[in-house]
Here is the input.
Amino acid sequence: MGMERLYSLYCPPKEIRKGFYICWMNNCEEKALNILFKYRKENNITVMDTGNRKLIKQIKQADESNFRYAIIIGKSEVEGNFITRKDLETGEEIRIF
Here is the structure.
């Protein structure tokens, strides 16, 4: 057996991250649902957190579930009419208006 084959058996390929996990805070459910439906309509894998948990717990769940992006919707996002997209692979955050 060749070395590449042995390596592939020993170290399986890393699963590719994909999809969006929507993290939202209190009183932001309507905007979160609108984003959920929009992303799904565009055929994106999209899940929305259903519990009333702290934002950090929601982001941790998104990361552990192997999603590529966390869409963050909080009070400042609703007031500023934007969303924050966090790349869970690189940690980069951008605002989308």
Q: What stands out?
A: Strands lie at 20-24, 46-48, 69-73, 83-87, 93-96. The longest helix spans residues 29-41. The helical segments are 3-10, 29-41, 55-64, 75-80. The chain has four helices and five strands.
